Amino acid sequence: MSARTQRNRLLAAGLVAASFSLALTACSSSSKDEGSGAPNASATVNEVKADPKLASLVPDDVKAAGKLLIGADASYAPDEFKDDSGKVIGMDVDLANAIAAKLGLKAEVQDSGFTAILPGIQSNKFQLGMSSFTDKKEREEVVDMVTYFNSGSAVAVKKGNPEKIDPKDLCGKKVAVQTGTTQADEINDTRDPDCVKAGKPGIQNGGDKFDLQTDVTNAVVSGRDQAMMADSQVVDYAVKQSGGQLEKVGETYGVAPYGVALAKGSKLTPAIQGAVQSLIDDGTYKQILTKWGVEAGAIDKSVINSVAAGH
Length: 311
What we know:
Mean pLDDT: 88
Shape: globular
Distance between the termini: 20 Å
Strand content: 15-25%
CATH architecture of the largest domain: 3-Layer(aba) Sandwich
CATH topology of the largest domain: D-Maltodextrin-Binding Protein, domain 2
CATH class of the largest domain: Alpha Beta
CATH superfamily of the largest domain: Periplasmic binding protein-like II
């Protein structure tokens, strides 16, 4: 769930210097926190030990390799992003490491363009995609999805909302989104058609699309765009890290589960689902979400292909 284009490096660098980094744009629940706390990247999480029963579900070739190759777009804080040293960190990264440990494996998280991850799974470049993918019917048609988190969508604008942006009526506005995300689809499939029905102009250019979520955030801070749409916890995190330059407008809407993406029919899918559920049951999962300030998105039960299963 995100959007991207050419990175405005000078702007990004200035923002990083100003406030830990808008390059860390990302996830939580709302400017009212909605049950989540502040992220604490240095918080410790209990060591995860292998579960022999779950490890026995891992296919022999993966077991022999000893690792899981995982694609993630490292521009979507606090889910997946780079720290000052360039290391990819975040909620999804910690969960990936914990899932791998449950299965007696190591996680190797590789930074990838968001729209390249699912094709990378289909071509066997990655075994997993953990990059804030909303579990949708269209995605379940090409990959398996193992649910692990709930997130909605939200809108953010400059602090004080000087242009009086109504999050429910963005017709004719300049709105930044990340390419390939749920929000980009929402503009095309819902927002613009609704504007036409109301006799209003659509969102300008069908949304100002960027390859990186950090650029989406910077577009609003710089005044290039009037608003941004992103996953709710990503908007919340951006607001928290913006040094008072952004605010969320309206409420979180369209809450749906995230899914770990795997090749369609992968023999690894049951093992991943079992590992996620085990982490939920033993409390490690909640520790990780709390560490990143996104515990409001916690789920109690992980399922495979929730849309097809009717969940």
